[in-house]
Design brief:
Strand content: 25-35%
Shape: globular
CATH superfamily: Carbon-nitrogen hydrolase
Structural class: alpha+beta
CATH topology: Nitrilase/N-carbamoyl-D-aminoacid amidohydrolase
Strand order of the largest sheet: 5-4-3-2-1-15-16
Low-confidence stretches: 261-278
CATH class: Alpha Beta
CATH architecture: 4-Layer Sandwich
Number of domains: 1
Distance between the termini: 26 Å
Largest sheet: 7 strands, mixed
Mean pLDDT: 93
Number of helices: 5
Helix content: 10-25%
């Protein structure tokens, strides 16, 4: 059975190509979130190495036995909370843009390999081939990564809805050109258009958590990741939005309170409530 829980969106600064620094920083942010009562935290896409960084092919580590996943598992176990994070994964001679959900005991309960990678990411990451959900006492979680959310017709997000997800978690790395002016072109419409109809159709939560910081390598070198992390509720409305900027690191909190389970197939029905950031 699902129950109310506090979710923390960790809109963290990611230092491209520096996994030790990023993991230490993530551990500190997780401790802060635990101190505020969070039972589940969500970290950005490729938070260990940064998205499309050259180190992806040389420094990626296995899941769950590589150092990044083991360190996150240890803090999940010590703190007794669920951790969702985007990690670059090595599997033999292949490298994937992956995401994980770790339970309160630090056990890997769900892994996803990105399906809808941008064309410029293909040189860095191999292709994922499946979707899944995991059932916990908090919710049935679905897992996707960034551009998976705007696959044509939102087919991947909708598939997670049909698989029974109550809450879809999406580590992201949302980037704009270095000279982007948010006052003239406010960021975020793409994600609202992608998330809101599916959230309303299936009465589920969708959470996208982006990093902040400059992209220092790869095809988007010179662009900046700007946060704007987004939580959309089961009525299809925006509940939370993170601040914009390459230095806009923050932790956002929301109380997720599912009050009904899905009951039928062509768009779930149910009643949900959420309280925004404390």
């Amino acid at each position: 059975m699902s129950r109310a829980f506090k979710l923390a969106l960790l809109q963290m600064h990611v230092e491209a190509g520096d996994p030790d620094r990023n993991l230490e920083h993530a551990e500190d942010l997780i401790r802060q979130a635990v101190g505020r009562g969070a039972e589940c935290v969500v970290l950005p896409e490729a938070m260990d190495l940064g998205w499309t960084h050259w180190a992806s092919r040389t420094r990626a580590e296995p899941i769950p036995n590589g150092e990044p996943c083991r360190r996150l598992a240890a803090i999940a176990r010590r703190s007794g909370l669920y951790v969702c994070a985007g990690l670059v994964e090595r599997d033999g001679d292949r490298v994937f843009n992956s995401a994980v959900i770790l339970d309160r005991q630090g056990q890997l309960i769900l892994k996803h390999r990105k399906l809808n990678e941008l064309d410029i990411g293909h040189a860095y990451y191999d292709q994922g081939d499946r979707l899944n959900v995991c059932h916990t006492e908090l919710a049935t979680f679905g897992l996707m990564i960034c551009a998976d959310g705007f696959a044509r017709g939102q087919v991947l997000t909708r598939s997670l809805g049909y698989m029974g997800a109550d809450v879809v978690l999406s580590p992201c790395a949302w980037a704009v050109p270095g000279d982007h002016d948010n006052r003239k072109e406010p960021y975020g419409d793409l994600w609202r258009r992608s998330y809101m109809p599916v959230a309303r159709e299936f009465s589920l939560w969708i959470i996208g958590v982006s990093n902040v910081g400059w992209i220092t390598d790869g095809p988007w070198q010179g662009r900046k990741c700007i946060g704007c992390s987004l939580l959309v509720g089961p009525d299809g409305r925006e509940v939370l939005r993170g601040p914009y900027g390459h230095d806009a690191e923050t932790i956002l909190y929301a109380d997720i309170m599912p009050e009904a389970r899905p009951t039928r197939g062509d768009g779930w029905t149910g009643y949900w409530q959420a309280r925004g950031a404390d």
